[in-house]
UniProtKB/TrEMBL annotation:
Organism: Streptomyces sulfonofaciens
Protein name: DUF2848 domain-containing protein
Gene Ontology MF terms: catalytic activity
InterPro entries hit by this protein: DUF2848, Fumarylacetoacetase_C_sf
A Pfam entry, by short name: DUF2848
Length: 228
């Protein structure tokens, strides 16, 4: 079981023993655009989901607060997301997240690809109740580093994704809104012309009202070749 620690703006901390991790997919707020995206991916060989939005269970140990991600080959990449965390007493927290995914495995099964890399989470969080009046204005950005050059690869707002309230109700309907649950939101589009297969990723969840930003960053470390 993974244990995560989050620092809140008032300096207090929350320790969360992770019991389940769920990755949302095809979770754009405009589901017509999502349907078009599903069709595009199908042409690339990625299996279409039976329903949208989709929800993929991920092994709890893959929820990590780390600065390093090991990769078996050169076709893995992250995705900027927000994460909803259910802390003790049902307190809901919001933080930045990056779903590191195996793109080669994705064509065989999205759920498999989600379980081939970690969900990296920020070390700071906000109480959902403290930002829920302006959630759509929160910004979500990502940068990649390749050969020492930093490029922005994602830039949007939470208005592009299904809201946390949607997922709170979805979890409640499944009796899954329980302490230790971590849910990742799904991602926003990547900017064209930027290579996602990078040496490092950085994600920022920003609040334009307060100027506060929650960040995470990690480098991608190639694993040695198999022996045998």
């Amino acid at each position: 079981m993974a244990q995560l620690t989050f620092e809140l703006p008032d300096g207090t901390t929350r320790e969360v023993d992770v019991t389940q991790v769920l990755n949302a997919g095809y979770a754009g707020r405009n589901q017509e655009d999502v349907a078009a995206h599903v069709a595009e991916l199908a042409e690339l060989g990625v299996p279409a989901p039976s329903v949208t939005p989709a929800l993929y269970p991920v092994a709890p140990y893959l929820a990590q607060q780390t600065g390093h991600v090991a990769a078996q080959h050169g076709r893995t990449s992250g995705e900027a997301e927000w994460a909803l965390i259910v802390a003790d007493g049902g307190e809901l927290l919001l933080t930045a997240a990056c779903d590191h995914t195996d793109r080669d495995l994705e064509v065989h099964g999205v759920a498999w690809s989600k379980n081939a890399g970690p969900d990296v989470l920020g070390r700071r969080a906000w109480r959902l109740a403290d930002v829920e009046d302006r959630l759509d204005d929160l910004t979500l950005r990502a940068w990649v580093t390749r050969d020492g050059e930093v490029s922005e690869i994602q830039h949007g707002t939470l208005a592009e994704l299904l809201a946390p309230a949607y997922w709170v109700e979805a979890l409640r309907a499944r009796d899954a809104l329980t302490p230790g649950t971590v849910l990742l939101s799904g991602t926003i589009p990547m900017l064209p012309g930027v290579d996602q297969f990078a040496d490092a990723w950085r994600v920022a969840l920003g609040d334009p009202v307060t100027g506060d930003t929650i960040t995470l960053s990690y480098d991608v470390r190639p694993m040695p070749a198999p022996i045998g």
